[in-house]
Write a structure and sequence with these properties.
- Pfam families: Cupin_2.
- The chain is mainly β.
- It folds into 2 domains: about 210 residues, Jelly Rolls; about 100 residues, Jelly Rolls (Sandwich), CATH 2.60.120.
- The chain has 5 helices and 24 strands.
- The N and C termini lie far apart (about 45 Å).
């Protein structure tokens, strides 16, 4: 594959195109400054304004959320896996019916594999604009987002109505639900009762991995972070590996499914038969299935990169608290 062809599979951090109206809480005070990015796959955006950088199916989606300090993402759930790692900033993740069942604070490089069946939200508690990168299971990311009832009610008070089809309508722009289209119903009591309320102590050991722990574990060989035998054991339709300078190898690697490379620190050179490319933190590179390649740091200093590989596994863990 030529360098030009591969460049079309690389999304540079500085070229990311945000959407500020991606979700139902886009007008809700406290959430109205967030930016959503869909990097690979269709994602779960509810807005036609969302730009998709790479549409090639991978078996999973890659996205991102960028938020200024004190901005939060409202309580929601997905039908498939959702994992986040912090690219920049300091973030508080919280969960439960009202967001008060438990919480964890994540720093740069930390990763959180959140099981389905739990309402979750997050906020930037740092002092600068921050970015978290998201991995969502499935090519259709589970068919959308399920919102806590109070989020839908608050959104309506600020002009945004979600149709049962999953499409947003902005009454501030004069939009209204088309004839015959009903609003998204609030989640029924029996469905709400199925949502987990795990404590922080229950979630942390099996769902959160810290950057510096992964650096230590990957000093000789890459660490499997999410996978059947990973630090966070799960089969969400993808595996996540963590590679550092100490565990990087000039041996070529290829996979049966598409893979994605996402640097956290340092610069990384990816080489294949036909060319090479250098990636920086915040860049995302899609590697075709079956393509042999090497991944090596290109400069001195701290260097760590996440590698996401598609699998044929099901949708991942559902909380069984």
């Amino acid at each position: 594959m030529t360098p030009q062809e591969m460049e079309s599979r690389i999304v540079r951090y500085g070229e990311l195109q945000p959407c500020k109206t991606a979700f139902i809480d886009a007008h809700t005070p406290g959430s109205d400054q967030k930016e959503n990015f869909t990097i690979i796959g269709g994602g779960v955006s509810e807005s036609p304004d969302q730009h998709v950088h790479i549409t090639i199916p991978h078996g999973f989606n890659i996205g991102a959320a960028g938020q200024p300090p004190k901005c939060r993402n409202s309580l929601h759930d997905h039908r498939t896996a959702e994992a986040f790692f912090v690219l920049s900033g300091r973030w508080r993740f919280f969960w439960g019916r009202y967001g008060d069942a438990g919480e964890v604070v994540l720093e740069k490089g930390d990763i959180f594999n959140i099981p389905t069946g739990i309402f979750r939200g997050f906020e930037n508690i740092g002092t600068d604009y921050g970015m978290i990168m998201a991995i969502l299971g499935g090519d259709d990311a589970g068919g959308g987002v399920m919102w806590a009832p109070q989020v839908i009610e608050d959104a309506a008070d600020h002009g945004l109505v979600l149709a049962e089809s999953g499409k947003l309508y902005d009454t501030k722009k004069g939009e209204a639900l088309p004839s015959g289209v009903s609003p998204m119903p609030l989640m029924a009591a029996d469905e709400l009762a199925k949502r987990g309320e795990p404590t922080t102590a229950q979630v942390l050991p099996n769902h959160v991995a810290r950057y510096w722990d992964m650096v230590a574990l990957s000093d000789k060989t890459p660490a499997k972070v999410i996978g059947e035998t990973g630090i966070l054991r799960d089969k969400p339709g993808f595996e996540v590996n963590f590679i550092t300078r100490g565990s990087a190898s000039d041996t070529t690697t290829s996979f049966d499914y598409p893979s994605v490379l996402m640097p956290v620190t340092g610069h990384w050179k990816v080489t294949w038969d036909g060319g090479s490319a250098t990636l920086a933190p915040g860049d995302t590179m899609s590697v075709p299935e079956g393509m042999a390649h090497t991944v090596l740091p290109s400069m001195t200093g701290e260097a760590a990169i996440y590698q996401i590989v598609g699998t044929a596994d099901p949708a991942g863990l559902t909380w069984q608290g």
